[in-house]
Hints:
The chain is α+β, with helices and mostly antiparallel strands. The chain has helices spanning 29-34, 52-61, 63-68, 81-88, 111-115, 153-165; strands at residues 14-18, 24-28, 38-43, 71-77, 103-106, 119-120, 125-126, 128-133, 139-145.
Amino acid sequence: MAERLVGKQAPRFEMEAVLANKEFGKVSLEENMKNDKWTVLYFYPMDFTFVCPTEIVAISDRYDEFEDLDAEVVGVSTDTIHTHLAWINTDRKDNGLGQLKYALGADTNHAISRDYGVLIEEEGIALRGLFIISPEGELMYQVVHHNNIGREVDEVLRVLQALQTGGLCPANWKPGQATL
């Protein structure tokens, strides 16, 4: 039976990544927490595919909005940092990513994908899972869906803002509206 993650401490992670400056480094939940940042952690199936670059680029194009909300974004697949870098170094017109404003992590041993319940074991790839984690490490939001469907950046930002109100947000709540 699946274990509930929302409302609990998020599984801790540290992994190799290609950073926004295209250097290899590490990303970790502990570092984000130490810096009092929200974490938007999302998983995608694999590099050099068709749906993935549309959402990875869309999030990067709006990264400043996440930054304004004190959030660090980390994209993750089970590919290596070398594959990530090759994809980043591929121009967007050639189905590449081009310059990104946030890190892409490499979950090559599948431990993080497994901890977050998004690993398709028999394929060794992740489902499209997105998790929002508070600066205190509490997993506040999760959504997981089929790999054929990209995410909606507006909705991710809306949910992040709703969580940051600390209040009760009704259906169709938008930033700036009153909470309950």
